[in-house]
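Continuing the batch. This is chain 6 of the set; chains 1 through 5 are on the previous pages. Same settings as before, nothing changed between runs. Recording input and output for traceability.
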Amino acid sequence: MQSVEGATVVYAVSTLPGIVSALLVPTVVGVLFAARRRLARLLKPGNATMLDAEEYFHLALHASAMGDHHACMTYLEEVLQREPHHARAMYLRAVQHAELGLTQRAVAGIKAALLIEPDLDLARFQLGLLLLFDINQPAEAKDYLQRLRGSQDRALRAYSEAMIALVDNEPILARQKLAIGLSESSPDSQLPMLMRRLFERLLNGPDGAGELPAQRSLAACPPSLS
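Output for chain 6:
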């Protein structure tokens, strides 16, 4: 729990170790997913087999889904050696840093990815959460979140407006926006799990998070595969 410009801000706490990984790999046909798993077992990090950047990137996604941070980051290094400005790889590496508690590296990595691909909306939202909850930089968080008010993703737009309302010390508006976001969220998305916990705490008033330990917030924000 932290105070932001006079308002008590709560942490969206995730106790599910696989919450980030669950969003990082898209739903695929069973045969294709099984083939990817076989490929991941055969190709160990450092293998001399020459793959292109996107193949290594998909292997990194798979390793992240399996909770193997070391393999994921090794594959991402292969991607970035081939394409130094691969924004999705930079972002995925930042997600790994965030999961490992390397918050400053995570923030720097997402900012770098957004300089290359400003339209990575989920990455922008993730950055806003890290700045708001982990680093306690509400003004900078608001600057990044403001852009999401024009997002085509209605749920993400509402969640961003809720975070801005928290910064502005408007908990009632924050609850309203969170409720809208939850109603607009896709049923197969994991992000609402975090937002629902925050909503429940806000229902108890500004001090509703007092029972929760202060933990690092981490929303799952996957890079696009398109």
